Amino acid sequence: MYTFTSRVRYSETDSSERLTLPAITDYFQDCGTFQSEELGLGVKYLQQSHMAWVLSAWQIVIGEYPKLCDEITIGTFPYGFKGFLGYRNYVMDRADGRRMAHANAVWTLLHTDTMKPARATEEMLKRYVLSERLPMEYAPRKIAGAVSGSWEEGFAVKRHHLDSNHHVNNAQYIKMAFQYIPEGEKIVQMRAEYKRQALLGDLILPNIAREDKRYIISLCGSDREPYAVTEFTCE
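Now predict its structure.
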């Protein structure tokens, strides 16, 4: 497992001085990026290969939110490749070894020239060391109940939403959707299903649905078809 250590910063916490869900997502994404960069399979390698890993689905389970100044260790490892898909787990542990959060992600490898699926290269298969997947309850990739709630006011994609692939970064969708969760709700699981890419200037129309303690927030285009569907399960 690849790991790095950090300390919960004030800028990453909410009004209760706990690490936010979007910050946890950022840590997990950064951890995978750090591993790929150290293996020589990072952004530059992908750009030169005319390829990109695009997230297809997230499942993040939070047992406890780290507090301000907590020392944490973030870890990740790939556990499988199948065709154009890559599978990866993530963990976040406190310094005393207590598991705070864990996650599963499904990634799709694309040719950036054609935006068609691509198989992992020999370098990827050789350098990424696979591990046994985490013992967790794996949710389906697809989220049921999308686009069935109330429509909120739309907003345009800005430059700060984009990443090096020039589309809205997967974590940015979660930050967008997170704003519609009522204050005081404790999120214990977040799922996200990514359907298509949103680009600079595109309109985002949020659709909000609630079923008991389950919020489904679809981030749609002007055609009301989703770019991403998120599901937040609260305690």
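The helical segments are 21-38, 43-48, 122-127, 170-178.
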